[in-house]
Design brief:
This protein has five helices and 27 strands. With 411 residues, the chain is mostly beta strands. The strands form six sheets. Strands 1, 9, 10, 13, 14 and 15 form a six-stranded antiparallel β-sheet that branches. The protein has a five-stranded antiparallel β-sheet with strand order 2-3-4-5-6, with no helix packed on it. The chain has a five-stranded mixed β-sheet with strand order 8-7-16-11-12. The longest helix is centred in the N-terminal third of the chain and has 15 residues, at 13-27. The structure holds the ligand Nc1nc2c(c(=O)[nH]1)N[C@H]1C(S)=C(S)[C@@H](COP(=O)(O)O)O[C@H]1N2 and molybdenum atom (MO). The ligand Nc1nc2c(c(=O)[nH]1)N[C@H]1C(S)=C(S)[C@@H](COP(=O)(O)O)O[C@H]1N2 binds next to strand 6.
């Protein structure tokens, strides 16, 4: 991670103050459909509404209004390696999300098994600790759930519940050191300002093991892509857990509790668990499987410039480009195949912006004869883990990473 240096001036406290109330004013506007987009999923629907009614957000695929679930239209991923803030996907569990946050009055509490309880202002965080910057992919555990067959319940996402950003913030380790973690600490629990809509329902909270929390990579971010966080992406502070699924990336973070016992809260212990099997995969209906908390991401790759069903030239070369990510490490290779995986060819990788983020790739392809082709793309990460050629299945619809294919017609 780089020190933020000159970058710091860009996100001044004054600007945080000025923009926050503007964001709050529009959050209460109702969301309604602007137009429809085709989003074919095996279990339907074939179409989804596109909305521009959410604050600080451009056109987004509307999955749900309360709480907001907004998906990034896939063509956005073709435009650049970083996903713009105004089209970065949004996912919340509870609908009681503050529509107004006073940056001057905001405090982050650090408490529990520490020497000293802290109550940090945004000023303390922006100017009192070393700043760091890191490119990282934020991907929902249920990204691509809509492709699970048999179908599972949950947000029926296509492939747009992910985004890559350059995050700026401070190291969680530095914040914990400031409070002084006491011997015997085992986990650290994170909570935000959002609240359950019904009494007695569990507040959204996630925990990390103490060593992970103190690894120097986990950060508390106050900016993404050089701007303050959009309200719906966690203004004013969110956790960034590089290489791990976004469920751990707690938004509107205002409470950090160091625990001397393992966390047994619903969101850590029960929700977001996966079968402890290869690819977190089981047979539909299989029971009695040991479940563990979801954790590190796995490699994926996508074509971004050609939609499935497109026509391409049968004589001239076609440029095929896309994005890939290694999951919890960098991308080693991206390979493609036009003969259903009998032979593979390496694509050219573009600039490395950081091992935890998207890696763009491209290749020139000349199809041998007119006809239909399935174009397969497969990422192998720097730990030697490759995408599988059959889809995984689990009841929560988590961790899909099968090798993607698109159909093209050469004519
Ligand atoms: N406070 C809070 N943080 C949260 C959640 C939430 O419901 N509340 N959802 C988590 C989940 S499951 C996901 S996928 C990501 C989504 O991040 P985004 O909305 O910035 O894309 O936020 C995570 N952080
Ligand atoms: Mo998620």
């Amino acid at each position: 991670m780089a020190e933020k240096g000159a970058f710091q001036g860009l996100i001044s406290r004054r600007r945080l103050l000025a923009e926050a109330s503007a964001a709050a004013a529009v959050l209460s506007r109702p969301a309604w459909a602007q137009k429809m987009i085709s989003l074919p999923l095996p279990g339907g629907p074939g179409e989804r509404e596109v909305t521009t009614a959410f604050p600080q957000k451009g056109p987004m695929i509307l999955q749900r209004t309360r709480p907001p679930l907004l998906e990034t239209p896939f063509e956005v991923f073709d435009k650049g390696v970083f996903t713009p803030n105004d089209q970065f996907y949004v996912r919340w569990h509870w609908a009681l999300i503050p529509t107004e946050i006073d940056p001057g009055g905001f405090r982050l509490t650090v408490r529990g098994h520490v020497n000293q309880t802290l109550s940090l202002s945004l000023n303390d965080i922006l100017h009192g600790l070393p700043g760091v910057e890191l490119a990282a992919l934020n991907q929902c555990s249920g990204n691509s759930r809509g492709f699970f067959q048999p179908r599972v319940s949950g947000g029926e996402w296509s492939n747009g519940a992910m985004g890559n950003a350059l995050w700026t913030g401070v190291r969680l380790r530095d914040v914990l050191d400031k409070a002084g973690v006491r011997p015997g600490a085992v986990q650290v629990r994170f909570k935000g300002l959002d609240e359950p809509v019904v009494e007695d329902a569990p507040h959204f909270m996630k925990s990390l093991d103490i060593d992970h929390a103190r690894d120097g990579e986990v950060m508390i971010a106050y900016a993404m892509n050089g701007e303050q966080l959009p309200l719906l992406n966690g203004f004013p502070l969110r956790l960034v857990v590089p290489g791990w699924y976004a469920t751990y990336w707690v938004k509107m973070l205002n409470d950090i509790e160091v625990l001397d016992q393992p966390d047994v809260n619903y969101w850590t212990k029960v929700a977001y668990t996966i079968p402890d099997t290869p690819h977190a995969s089981i047979k539909p209906g299989e029971t009695g499987v040991r479940m563990i908390p979801i954790n590190r991401m796995v490699p994926r790759s996508f074509v971004t410039n050609i939609a499935s069903g497109s026509k391409v030239s049968a004589t001239a070369p076609t440029t095929v480009r896309g994005i890939a990510f290694g999951g919890d490490c960098g991308v080693a290779t991206v390979d493609f195949s036009i003969d259903r995986g009998q032979s593979w060819h390496q694509a050219q990788l573009e600039k490395d912006e950081g091992k935890y983020g998207f890696r763009q790739w491209q290749t020139q392809l000349t199809l041998p004869a007119p006809g239909k082709y399935d174009l397969l793309v497969r990422c192998t990460n720097s730990n030697g883990v490759a995408q599988p050629d059959t889809p995984n299945w689990n009841p929560a619809g988590f961790m899909r990473n099968v090798t993607e294919s698109i159909e093209v017609v050469a004519a």
